[in-house]
Amino acid sequence: MAEQHAIPTNVHPSRFVQNPLQRFLMATELDTRLLGMIGALAIIWIGFNIFSGGLFLTPRNLWNLSVQTASVAVMVTGMVLIIVTRNIDLSVGSILGLVGMVMGVMQTDILPAQLGLGLGNPLIWVLSLAAGLVVGVGIGALQGAIIAYLRVPAFIVTLGGYLVWRGAAWWVTMGRTVAPMDPTFQLMGGGPAGSVGQFWSWVVAVIACAAILIGLYWGRRQRRRFNFPLRPVWAEAALGVIGCGLSIGAVWVANAYPWPRRIAENYAEANGIAVPEGGLFISHGIAVPVLIALGVGVVMTFIATRTRFGRYVFAMGGNPEAAELAGINTRWVTVKIFMLMGALCAIAAAISTARLNAATNALGTLDELYVIAAAVIGGTSLAGGVGTIAGALLGALVMQSLQSGMVLMGLDSPLQSIVVGAVLVFAVWLDTLYRRNKH
User: Sign of dihedral through CA atoms 348, 349, 354, 357?
Assistant: First the structure.
């Protein structure tokens, strides 16, 4: 009797694929939708660079693009979880506006009058941010409770919130603009002072590369431990090179953008530094709001993929009835998702308010459109159960790239809205096709 040889369970299936491209994608296990978005982003960048006369792909514009993306990127990480559970939040822009106004009033009116804390006091920005977080989480808890326990559809509750919180932001100051913000608080908005500089940017790059390599090593160790198929060593090496290369490239671009000449000269004069003939070159480095957005992205990815709460969220999105029968307290999970969204709106409000150095009634206007569009473009399915934080962050970058590119080309604001709306509809259509083909 001939001896039969079974294929070992820990052999990766990519070994049996002949097509080089398919083999590479299967071996590295890269998400094809994510790769498609990266390709689309590359086309957008190259196209805008050509039509803007080479202005788009410059360190200055890319640095500004990263800062402009930060607030939407923070909020979209929460919107992914909301859409995954088959809900929606139309009030995020209004919550951002109200929380931003509350933090502004705390710094200019309440804390100086009640506690005698003037701008520049070490506590003022901490207390203002804490107040904003409390308001944001409170609003999220209220909306989540109405949705979960009173069974009012999320669309209606958050549409009402869209109107209520925008009106409340106006009533806080009766329509006036609140400025200026605390100098330490302003650092969360970017600018020459709100960046970490050349040295610390390279430190961030080293930490990012180390995290990527450790993650790959740990993942391989866990696969071997549970006898799962191991990726080929060359695929692991390719992922490490790609990840580290992108990290180093991003930091190189950030460091290539110098401080404005007058600000650099004033800094040199204040610190007794001699200014060379060609001018003083001081790198911006990575902006603080970008670091905040990346940090939020990492934390939210961990929550979504490595915690019981994250598993409950995706279980609810995949099959709400089955999740409830399995013993998941779906109502409480829904409340927690909206509370988390409120906290993220508060962080985004701090970034936006600090960047403007003022709290205005226009703050957060239309942000709900960009946040929802970024989540959908990033692969989050409106049918629920599917979505990734990394894809949503990339979607936020795509949306902001479109807006920034159109501004550089001098397109009117109404035309920009038309393009954004068309892109959103196109993204939902692609998602529908993807799900139809998958089934």
Answer: positive
* Tally of domains in the chain: 2
| Beta carbons of 375 and 368 less than 8 angstroms apart | no
pLDDT score for 411: 86
Cβ–Cβ under 8 Å, residues 94 and 162 = yes
Among residues 134, 131, 136, which one has the least CA distance to residue 341? 136
How far is CA 326 from each of CA 169, 323, 387, rounded to the nearest angstrom? Answer: 41, 5, 22
Q: What is the DSSP string of 311-342?
A: HHHHHHHH-HHHHHHTT--HHHHHHHHHHHHH
d(CA 90, CA 375): 13
Q: Which residue positions in the chain have pLDDT lower than 70?
A: 1-11, 14-18, 438-439
pLDDT of residue 421: 85
H/E element holding 383? none
DSSP percent split of the chain into helix, strand, coil, nearest 5: 70, 0, 25
Count CA atoms within 13 Å of residue 240 on its CB side.
18
Are the C-beta atoms of residues 108 and 121 closer than 8 Å to each other?
A: no
- Domain housing 248: 196-285
How confident is the model at residue 3, as a pLDDT? 46
pLDDT at 226: 87
End of a domain among 232, 260, 285?
285
For residues 389 and 417, membership in a common domain is answered with yes
Residue 215, in any domain of the structure? yes
Q: Is 18 helix (H, G, I), strand (E, B) or coil?
A: coil
354-379 per-position pLDDT tens digit? 999 999 999 998 899 899 999 998 98
pLDDT of 383 = 85
**What pLDDT sits at residue 4?**
47
Type of residue at 317: G
**Structural tokens at position 410:** 């001098």
